[in-house]
Amino acid sequence: MPDSNKRKRSHWIGSVFLAIIVFAVCYTQVFYSVDKFLSDPLYYTSSVPDSRIKIIAIDEETIQKYGDIRTWDRKIWAELIELLNSGDADPAVIALDIMYIGAVEEASDTHFAKACKTGGNVITAVNAVYGTQLSKEGRTISVDTGHIEMVEYPYEELKAVSSYGFANILLDADGYIRYAREYIDYDGERIDFFPVAVYRLYCEKQGMEPELPVTFSSNLFSFDYTGKSGAYEVVSMCDVLDGTVDVRVFADSVVLVGAYAPGMQDSYNVPIQKSSPMYGVEVHANILESLLEQNTKVAVEPWLYALIVAITVWGYYVLVSRVKLLASTIMSVAVIGTDLLIGKLLFGVGYVINIIEAPIFVLVIYGYNLANKYLSEVIQRKKVLSAFKKYVAPQVVDEISKQKDFKIILGGENRNIAVLFVDIRGFTPMSESLEPEQVVGILNEYLQLTTHSVFNNGGTLDKFIGDATMAIFNAPFDLEDYIYKAVCTARDIAAGSAELEQKLMERFGRSISFGIGINCGNAVVGNIGCEYRMDYTAIGDTVNTAARLESKAGPGEILVSEAVYEHLRGRVRMEYVEKMMLKGKKEGVNVYRVPVTDSAETANYDR
After folding, report:
1. Torsion angle of C-alpha atoms 240, 243, 244, 249, degrees rounded to 10
2. Mean predicted confidence (pLDDT) in 39-49
3. Residue 165 pLDDT more than 90?
4. Are 72 and 233 in contact (CB under 8 A)?
5. Which of 128, 397, 435, 549 could link 559 by a cystine bridge, Cβ 3.0 to 4.6 Å?
6. 88 DSSP 8-state letter
7. At 382, phi and psi to the nearest 5?
8. Can you give 370-406 as a three-state secondary structure string?
9. Given this model, what pLDDT does residue 607 score?
10. 3-state secondary structure of 529
11. Are strands 413-425 and 267-270 parallel, antiparallel or unpaired?
């Protein structure tokens, strides 16, 4: 199977495996606490609270005046109910978020119960005591932590004349309050949650049919928070009892009476204000408003949510690997933004979803692709640099790599370059008289000399053409004083050639010489060829002229064009040879020779 097909197959298998992981993570809600921590500010924002809901607070001032609430004579409660139902106020509902367990003092208890019966609008709180119980279904035995062991009701006389609801607040997995249980069943009796009982009684008093919340598992529903602590109208209970507050402000309202002092230990963590807890009576006020405004929520089925996220992440993974970095960045932002927007819109119409899983997987995939593309570019860069070290002086490539100034234009570009051709003179006759292994050995030593000379001067080794070498200067990278360095390369070859000739004479009884041609000017430089076979080279008249000069050079001779002469006049001593007719040229070309044995020139030869 071709590599491309294998990669495609691996990619699709990986995408399916990823979708399965995403589904499992979303279904099991691994990131539940993280999701809630990050999504709460998006979901829960303050708005104007319902003016029908008012709070009478058992605050520090009230406790200082009347003492510890556990020591109160119940006639205080009777006086409060009678005052509120005196005719000047007539609240729709008076909800006492207080438990009145057991008889205290007969006359006061009777007085309080009678006031509640007369008003007909009082709701009190009960407490459900939870425990654990072993539960068996078939062969499966589990522990039921939601088992209700008992319910603590108001004392009998009060229970008989007032409504009640269980006031237990349900904490989420991270200790915050986002859900409520609509009702519980105990001993054959359905007991509504305290705000639900208040809502039912309010609808009854207003002649409305209550619309109970849609619930999911275990009678749960979610609700919105309208305001933070202090958002609802709050008055001190002692100010109501001593007449400081005009009770007419409570007319037709739902009056919630509850703890509003730290010492009463009735405060909870809520998502709308992470920095400070909220009193239980305010939590009930927010839940009640959600019921009044039909603004309760239900959680989307985990399997459905997990399936949607898995499909989304799968599609993102398949697409993002096929696009460039900018497109993948835009796509990632779009997916995350859409996820947050959908979560917010669904919450607004009554559905709760986790919104963090999709962004987490998107960011992980994006980071993986980013790292993968970066590593691929690094590897590719190293491959290209390694390849160019075969053509360009390695130290030049290393320096450019360190400076991160690396750009090779594929397909060709116009550059001003110097071109050097060098060819062995007498190679063909020599190769006919020697063994092939000896010929290869001589050629390798000669090519090693030319290669080192080119690289030492920062040139690019273009190619070997049989026993000839072609080098270019100032491509693919800019090279300072590149025409001069091309001439320096020729001189280096000349200097090394003398030693090489002596070595070959001693070994084989044969000597060889060279001819060099140098020209400069514009040429097309780049990757020339086709998709499956290309060479980095230079083409154009500048290259052809250099090749013709090399063919005209005699043994041990360095010939340069007039363009080279004009650039280096005064720096390198050159001798005019003649105007030569070169192949492919209609007019003659002025040719100059660079001396290779002149001691004066050698002294003037400076790099």
Report:
1. 60
2. 89
3. yes
4. no
5. 549
6. S
7. -65, -40
8. HHHHHHHHHHHHHHHHHHHCCCECHHHHHHHHHHCCC
9. 40
10. strand
11. unpaired
Q: How far is CA 246 from CA 54, 237, 241, 463, 558, in A?
A: 13, 12, 10, 103, 115
601 CB contacts (<8 Å, ≥6 apart)? 572, 573, 594, 595
- Greatest Cα pair distance, the chain, in angstroms, is 138
Please give the Cα distance from 421 to 517 (Å, whole number).
5
pLDDT digits (tens, 9 = 90+) for 386-417: 666 655 556 556 655 655 555 554 567 899 99
Q: Which residues contact 506 (CB under 8 A, 6 or more apart)?
A: none
Q: Is pTM, for the whole model, over 0.70? A: no
Query: Which residues fall within 8 angstroms of residue 225, CB to CB, at 6 or more apart?
Result: 44, 46, 270, 271, 272, 286
pLDDT digits (tens, 9 = 90+) for 489-498: 999 998 888 7
Nearest to 552 by CA among 583, 523, 576, 529: 583
Q: What's the confidence (pLDDT) of residue 177? A: 94
According to DSSP, the residues that pair with 514 across neighbouring strands are 424
Going across the sheet that includes 296-299, the strands are: 179-181, 220-223, 296-299, 351-352
| 163 contacts 122 by C-beta, under 8 angstroms | yes
CB neighbours of residue 261 within 10 Å:
18
Report CA-CA distances (Å) from 256 to 69, 70, 283. 17, 19, 11
